[in-house]
Amino acid sequence: MNMSRLRKAAVAVGAALVAGTTTASTAVASEASSGPSPQSSCYIAHDSGFYRADALHCAPRAGAGVHLDPPDYQVPEGYLNGTVHPFGCWSKLSAHDGGNDIWYHTYVDEWVHGYGIGWAKSTDVYTGTHPYPGLPECPR
Length: 140
Description:
Largest sheet: 3 strands, antiparallel
Strand content: 25-35%
Structural class: alpha+beta
Number of domains: 1
Radius of gyration: 13 Å
Shape: globular
Signal peptide: 1-24
Mean pLDDT: 77
Distance between the termini: 11 Å
Keywords: Signal
Low-confidence stretches: 1-38
Strand order of the largest sheet: 1-2-5
Organism: Streptomyces formicae
Protein name: Secreted protein
Number of helices: 1
Order of helices and strands: HEEEEEEEEE
């Protein structure tokens, strides 16, 4: 999948699911690993905010990056703060340093630039199983 197609897919998923905007923070978080965290209690439930649909609610790694183009995942749109957060769907994109190619669509807690929406590496979302059972695959 080329970067232009990934960018269009990320923006399309976000545009199709967004009913409002997220509050942007000007703080820049460090993407350095904050160390292992206990596996969170993840669940599927209706999200009345960003997604306005059923979403995975799960705690990500604090400081995890959200990337518009996963093949170029060194450049984040922003960061997740580690609190329970909604993820709208998953997709098989590029392989990442977590050892698989599963990414979860979400929005940032701490905005850096760009759209503030994109993809988090599966290993930064503490589900225990990837993709998370019951969460739909993102439309392509």
